[in-house]
Amino acid sequence: MTQAKIYLIPVPISAHNPASLSVEISRIVPQLRHYFVENIRTARRFIKSIYKEADIDNTHFSEIDKHNGADKNLFKKWITEGKAIGIMSESGCPGIADPGAELVAMAQEMNVEIIPLVGPSSLLLALMASGLNGQQFCFNGYLPVKEPARSKEIKTLEHFSKQNNQTQLFIETPYRNNTLLNDFLKNCNDATKLCIAFNITAPNAFIKTKTIHQWKQENITLEKEPCVFLLLAH
């Protein structure tokens, strides 16, 4: 029986920039008929965009549920049957601030070959362009939504950043971008550096690093687009 393989398939961060993907993805995707995906509709559209002859009707998709996770029994079944399986999020790299890690962990336990394909990660692109410390960094994901936990966490991580010279990375639901920005401006020291990486790889993208004091003078308003925030205290 053919040995199963797991392919981790990046998707463009911005639909306007498919060139951010490696040529290898165009070679691998036509070979796959089994997928675990964050969103079936998005996955179908992406596959068709890079392989117009794709037989979507005979391609099997299992959606990773936001609350209950993936169908692990089906994943194990496909592995046992020796299938080549693609894992795909809606944008960026699966398993990095996106679903997929639990499936990869299961594949590791089953000693299955795992092949990560090259593609864009908004976190790494933001860090690369920020000018902040890329030797020591930590991705924190989402901050608490409610106060006082939110402000307390910001101040705690700013203090940790200063002590350890460690860049702190955050993401937020796009409609809360301005709220998070204002919370940084309210809670952080003026000398702390904040990088805003807005809608990376899109035509209106920008990645700018300024001190908190400088951002206070900007009076900036962020649109409802994906954004990465990076903090480094001095």
Q: What's the arrangement of strands in the largest beta sheet? A: 3-2-4-1-5
Query: What is the average of the pLDDT values?
Result: 94
Summing up helix and strand content along with how strands pair, one would put the structural category as alpha/beta
The DSSP helix count reads 8
Low-confidence stretches: none
Verbal overview:
This protein has 234 residues and is α/β, with parallel strands linked by helices. 33% of the residues lie in helices and 21% in strands. The protein folds into two domains: 5-116, Tetrapyrrole methylase, N-terminal domain (Cobalt-precorrin-4 Transmethylase, domain 1); 122-232, Tetrapyrrole methylase, C-terminal domain (Methyltransferase, Cobalt-precorrin-4 Transmethylase, Domain 2), CATH 3.30.950.10. Strands 3-2-4-1-5 form a five-stranded parallel β-sheet, covered by helices on one side. The protein has a five-stranded mixed β-sheet with strand order 6-7-10-8-9, sandwiched between helices. The radius of gyration is 20 Å and the shape is elongated. The N and C termini lie far apart (57 Å). The model has no long low-confidence stretch (mean pLDDT 94).
In short:
It is built from eight helices and ten strands.
List keywords for this structure.
elongated; five-stranded parallel sheet; Methyltransferase, Cobalt-precorrin-4 Transmethylase, Domain 2; five-stranded mixed sheet; 2 domains; Cobalt-precorrin-4 Transmethylase, domain 1; about 230 residues; alpha/beta
